[in-house]
Write a structure and sequence with these properties.
alpha/beta; two-stranded antiparallel sheet; 11 helices
Amino acid sequence: MTFFKRFLTTLVCMGLLTACNAQKDAHGEDNQARLERSQIPAISVQLWSVNHTLKKDFKGTLEAISAMGFDAVEFAGDFGPYHNDPQGLKRYLDALGLEVSGAHVKMRDLTDDKFEQTVAFYQQLGSPMMIVPSDKRAEQAETIESFVAELNKVTIKMRAKGMRFGFHNHDRELVPYKNSTYWDYIAANTPEDFVLQLDVGWAEYAGKDPVAYINRYPNRTITTHFKAKYPATVTNKKPLIGQDVTNWPAVIYANVKSGGTQWLVLEQEEYPDGLTQLEAVQVSKQGLDDVIAQLTN
């Protein structure tokens, strides 16, 4: 609890939150679309954002995340003292008012010999879906077809368990392949209930329009990674939501109107200005809250 108190004290002292300006589009114009607050998907955080902090103080970190106002967490393999106790972890999360929006799970944990054990763990944890975070086979012409066949096989098995299954992009899947990209190939060759977890930051980094990708595959962006990222050629911006280059109101509008999105999952992988992991997450969360307020007022 000492860590938690120190964290809150730090937030009170920080002047950084006031630097989160109202989000505007690339041309400096306010986004014209408006939504009702009830239409905004729930907000989760990918726990990889605080991976080092989580290892030092698992419970204190989750308490801090709860205090920030997140609705849920997305796991990335670290369960602290609950690594063999998913039901205990769920009870702890319930006590903090946190749901589980999903989990990043490697394909090696979904092979036939491990599938039942893996699914049972996440079902007890209350996770509605599992997302493969990356796989080298998804980035290579020699292996992409067999990899997609394996994704489809697991999708069928997950469907029978009442869980969703999907894949998460980096910039590496957004390079040309067969007149489109590896990401487009995955989308075109998986069933409609296969989740395309678009990472907005990596799409920006790859020079792609995240809104176009959400609209291209209706009702498949069930969960979206909200990450502030951009090419190295961009200057005078910061990898913090509200201080970056992404037209976040347009992304959220597409999520609601086209994506079938249930979860906006904030992910922070860069920590500018000497910010700690939790401080950077807090700044981006405040930036996202500001965007949502702008979009719904």
